[in-house]
Amino acid sequence: MSIRIPNFANEKVIDENGYFTPVWAQLFQQLLTQLVTNYNDEGLLVPNQTTTNISYLTDATKSNGAFLQNSDTGDLLFNVAGTWKTVTLT
After folding, report:
1. C-alpha–C-alpha distance, residues 66 and 84, integer Å
2. Which is more confident, 5 or 27?
3. Which 3 state secondary structure label does DSSP give 27?
4. Alpha-carbon distance 35 to 61, whole Å?
5. CA angle, 68 as apex, 65 and 69 as ends, to 5°?
6. How far apart are CA 49 and CA 68, in angstroms?
7. Residue 59: how many CA atoms within 13 Å on its side-chain side?
8. What pairs with residue 86 in β-bridges?
9. In angstroms, rounded to a whole number, what is the distance separating the alpha carbons of residues 59 and 35?
10. I need a surface site. Which of 53, 59, 78, 88 has the fewest CB within 10 A?
């Protein structure tokens, strides 16, 4: 699973009839779909990455403070100062 939050679209927002333009309608539809799918009453759905992909996530500036689930092992991981740490529950 990957979370796909849309980027800003530098396009006209409202058409001549007062409706969202197709670009903005799609942006909002994608945003709302992701929010409903990943942030719902059942809880926050944590992004999944394979062990291989996690090994490439080494940029401490971008990854510091991030959390994800290893899809190969099921482990929950947090990035602390550029190092992925496994969360241990007892």
Report:
1. 9
2. 27
3. helix
4. 25
5. 150
6. 7
7. 3
8. 77
9. 26
10. 88
Tell me the CA end-to-end span of the chain in Å, nearest whole number.
27
Provide the β-strand partners of residue 84: 79
The tokens describing 46, both together, are 């944590």
Q: Would the pLDDT of 15 be above 90?
A: yes
| Strand arrangement of the beta sheet that strand 76-80 belongs to | 48-49, 67-70, 76-80, 83-86
37-90 per-position pLDDT tens digit: 777 787 888 889 999 998 888 776 778 888 999 999 999 999 998 889 999 988
Q: What is the C-alpha to C-alpha distance for residues 67 and 46, in angstroms, rounded to an integer?
A: 7
Task: Give the model confidence (pLDDT) of 19-32 as tens digits.
Answer: 999 999 999 998 89
CA separation, residue 15 to residues 6, 8, 25 (Å): 20, 17, 11
Decide: 63 and 57 in contact? Cβ < 8 Å. yes
> So what's the pLDDT on residue 55?
86
CA distance 17 to 31: 23
